[in-house]
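Request from the bench team (R.T.):
"We need a structural guess for the complex before ordering more zinc ion. Sequence and SMILES attached. Just send the C-alpha cells back."

Command: build protein-zinc ion structure.
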Amino acid sequence: MRCPERAEKDGRVRAWDNVSVRAVLNNRFYLGEMAYGKSKRKSAGSKAGIDVPMEEWKVIPDHHEPLVIPEDYEKVCLFHKGADTARKGEKNPLVGKLFCGGCGYSMTYKPLRGKNKYRRYECRKHEVLQIRSRCTYFNADLLEETVLTMLNRELMVRGDAAKENQSLISFQKSCIARLEKKITECRGRKKQLQAEADALYESYAFGAACAVSYRQKADSIKEQTASLSAEEEKHGKELEQLQEEYRRTEEDMKQVIRYSHLEVLTQEVVDIFIKKIYVLKDKRVETQWNFRENGKETE
Ligand SMILES: [Zn+2]
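Reply to R.T.: structure attached below.
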C-alpha cells in the first residue's frame, strides 16, 4: 500500500509498513465504532489511570461512517485474542518486576539465543545509554530459583500466620453477630415506638387524651425514635467495616493456602505475590511482596 500524495522530500514514496497496516486492521474504529471507557481513575480525583480490559470498553456502534464493512473486517480481523500477529518474544514472568539495585533501571531478559550461552537478566542502562560496561547481570536459572525459594519461605511463614488467623476470623464473626443483634434490637424497639405513637394518636383523636399531654408523649416518642435511628446507623457503619475486614482476612488466607508450596514461577504467581525485585551487584536479591499487611496493601 502506498500513499502517493505523501512523497518524501527526496521524491520517494514510502510504502506502508506492517506496523501501520496492523494498526488499522486491529482497530475497530475503522468499522464505524466508537469505544470509550478504556481507562478509569485509580480513585476519585486521582491523576493515575488504570487500563480497563478491552471486553469492558463501552462501544457505540455506527458512530461514524465506516471505512471497512463488517464482512470484510471479519475476514481480515485480527481483533480476537490469540490471533494478534505482533511478535511475541519469549515472555519471561519476572520481566517488569526486576530492577537493577545499582542504578534503578529495569532489567531485561536474555534468552538462550545466538551468542547467549546462558539465560540471564541484564540491567538495561547500558542499552539505553549505549555505554559498554554492564551494570548488573544475573544468571536467570539462579535468580528464578532464588525467587522461588524466597517465595516458598514467605508462604510458609504466612501459612502459619494464616492458621493463627483462624482465631481472628472467629473473633470477627462473633463481633459481626453481636452488631447484627444490636441492629435488630434497634429496629424492633423502633417498631414498638411506632405502635405506641399510633395508639396515642388514636386515643387523642377519639378525645380520650388532652392536647397537652398528647403533645408531650408524642414528642418523647419522637425523640426516642431519633436516638434509636442514630444508634442503628452507628452500628450499621461498624458492621460494614467489620465485614470488609472479615472478607479480607478470609481472602488472604485462601490465597496463602492455595499457593502453599510452589514448584514453578508462573506469570500468575509472580503477578499475585511479587511487587518488585531489586537485583544487587553482590548477587543479593531484595523482594517487595504483594502481600497485604493486616488487611492493607504493603508499601
Ligand atoms: Zn544498573
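Two things stood out. DSSP finds six helices and twelve strands in the chain. Residues 100, 102-103, 105, 123, 125, 135-136 surround zinc ion (CB under 6 Å).
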